[in-house]
Amino acid sequence: LTQSNTSNDSYNSGAITVSAATQPDLTPTSVTLSTTSLTAGGSVTVTVTVRNQGTGNAGATTTMIRLNNNPSSSSPSDPIQQGVATPAITAGGSANVSATFTLSAAGTYYAHVYVDNNSVLTQSNTSNDSYHSGAITVSAATQPDLTPTNISLSSTSVTVGGTVTVTVTVANQGTGNAAATTTMIRVNNNPSSSSPSDPLQQGVATPAINAGSSTTVSATFTLSTAGTYYAHAYVDNYSVLTQSNTSNDSYNSGAIT
């Protein structure tokens, strides 16, 4: 157009305010451990409080909980981990999730928590998505340790055709109770060893023995040939126990003439 006035061709409105879209912000605000001290084979439950401190609601997510021996980090390849379903959380709300783990090896463990592990949300902040717990100490499981502490002989001098009774004191010097076992007692002419093929031997039923306790078992042998004999005792002869030490399972007596 050919206008009489072009100075009035524009107009500016008042302000239009555009706010940022509301977004959730999940963060693990605390990790609670059912115990911080257990023995190998025991379990610990890790409970995580997941809070949505953002301005938008959060849909359902997965919270990853891992246990390892590193105090500050974990890896997706760690063998002890559980992905825990976490419900939707409204802005300002929170939810608790938990997982239970069995720890079979002694050591010091730490729990590591990662909210929205599969990144299904668009969060306003992801730098606060992890949490690392304090130490969980796992002690070695208690185990028995049977040992023959003494061999008593009813006689050290017999005539051919006579008998000798061998009495063995079996002590459990381990930290765990011992179930019933068999103590093998052999008599032969060797002062330091015996063989499963030796003709003079008896497997003697040995009752369960509590940690720190002992019992005695005995066997009687007839010696029909002249010579010098020795008694040999072997506790838990059939290895039915898992002992903390098996190097002390045998004992050799003095001479029987």
Q: Which properties best describe this structure?
A:
257 residues, mainly beta, 4-stranded antiparallel beta sheet, rod-shaped
Explain this structure.
- The chain has 257 residues and is mainly beta.
- Helices cover 0% and strands 47% of the residues.
- It is built from no helices and 15 strands.
- It has a 5-stranded mixed β-sheet with strand order 2-8-7-4-5, with no helix packed on it.
- A hairpin with an 8-residue loop joins strand 9 and strand 10 (162-172).
- The protein is rod-shaped and about 150 Å long.
- The model has no long low-confidence stretch (mean pLDDT 96).
Give a concise summary:
The protein is mainly β and 257 residues long.
List the topology elements.
Elements: E1 26-33, E2 37-39, E3 42-52, E4 61-68, E5 81-86, E6 94-103, E7 107-114, E8 130-139, E9 146-153, E10 162-172, E11 181-188, E12 201-206, E13 214-223, E14 229-234, E15 250-256
Parallel strand pairs: 2-8
Antiparallel strand pairs: 1-3, 3-6, 4-5, 4-7, 7-8, 9-10, 10-13, 11-12, 11-14, 14-15
Helix-and-strand structural type: mainly beta
Q: Mind telling me the C-alpha Rg?
A: 37 Å
Give the ordered list of helices and strands.
EEEEEEEEEEEEEEE
Question: Which spans have pLDDT < 50 for at least 5 consecutive residues?
Answer: none
Percent range of helical residues: under 10%
End-to-end span in angstroms? 140 Å
Shape assignment: rod-shaped
- Whole-number mean pLDDT: 96
Q: Strand fraction band?
A: over 45%
Q: Strand order of the main beta sheet, please?
A: 2-8-7-4-5
Total beta strands: 15
Count of alpha/pi helices: 0
Largest β-sheet summary: 5 strands, mixed
